[in-house]
Amino acid sequence: SSPFTFRKLAGCTLFITGASRGIGKAIALKAAKDGANIVIAAKTAEPHPTLPGTIYTAAAEIEAAGGKALPCIVNVREEQQIINAVEKAVKTFGGIDILVNNASAISLTGTLETETKKVNLMMDVNVRGTYLTSKTCLPHLRKSRNPHILNLSPPMNLNPMWFKNHCAYTISKYGMSMCVLGMAEEFRGEVAVNALWPKTAIHTAAMDMLGGSGIEKQCRKTDILADAAYCILTKPKSFTGNFIIDEVLLREEGVKDFDVYAIAPGHPLMPDFFLDEKKLSGSQHEGPDGAKVNTESGPAKPSSPVAETFRVIQGAMSEEYVRTTQGVFQFELSGEEGGTWYIDLKTKGGSAGFGKPPVTADVVMSMSSADFVKMFTGKLKPTLAFMSGKLKIKGNMTLAIKLEKMLTQLNSKL
Predict the structure, then answer these.
(1) What would the DSSP string read from start to end of 77-115?
(2) Does the 13-261 domain belong in CATH 3.40.50.720?
(3) Which residue among 56, 131, 169, 261 is the active-site one?
(4) Where in the chain are the domains?
(5) Is 169 in the active site?
């Protein structure tokens, strides 16, 4: 049977930070359909010039969906506002069953470009806000029949690639994940504490701001996180200490059609931050008795060919290649593993991986991910790919030819 059929959250009280829009609101509306009580703990009380929604418009939508709403002005940087909202929630609804730590601040900037006030904002909202809201709700959660804390934060992946371009943001999001790690163990048997993170980019106002126009085609709707959150929050409290990826969980729950979640079905999706291919297989956690248990997903999947190719390229980097090439290559790949990847053969010891290159690319190559793998394993000559229209090249053609030379040397390793 579908995981979404019964009114499992009827009468439950959810305290959701940042619920006036985006992912927080989507989780609220999903629970509201069951007849849940929602405390909208967010800071937008007056309409914002560029962002949609206030705590009051969200409250109206929640009531219309069948839930009860309590809008509370809460900036999670202000401890007293958190305490007041929690007290009001308990007075209004008699307790708190679920806390969703969704409020987050983001600035994808390097260390020297990140102003101190931005560092403070991310640490205050993401780490301290999550910690204090959890601390304030926990005494009430412990009295609930099936209490849950759910943080919207990633599996902790210590690959330096996720730190180098936005160190402060990464530290702050992993701070939220560390709250899961610590509190799940501290309150084991009493309160479930888990993390949820999307496999692909999700279309929100924040994403529009970061990605600019047209980005939504590469995103999924917030519904996928709402459905995944619902699955987690309706599990028993013994389900704890897990770092869950939305798509992995929903596949396990029997969901087969993921096109319903796409903004533009069939369009390549942009993978989310902090996930390299190994993170999408299973993750090990200690069980209560110290036994190893697999808590994230089914059997480990082999790593994807594109990611594997970049891993080999990264491993083959040498000062020699960098010195002789002096170029930055960006790959816009379509198909199965669509997205932006790069090879930087200009900066220091060189680097390669997922996302935009650290500096502006000299050459942008567009092709399908299948042809990309063929090209890097010597099964398709770049010149031929270019002439047959399989490969489009923008930028410095001389550098493109240099890359071809490097490929012939690399083929033995691939």
Answers:
(1) T-HHHHHHHHHHHHHHHS---EEEE---------GGGS-
(2) yes
(3) 169
(4) 13-261, 305-412
(5) yes
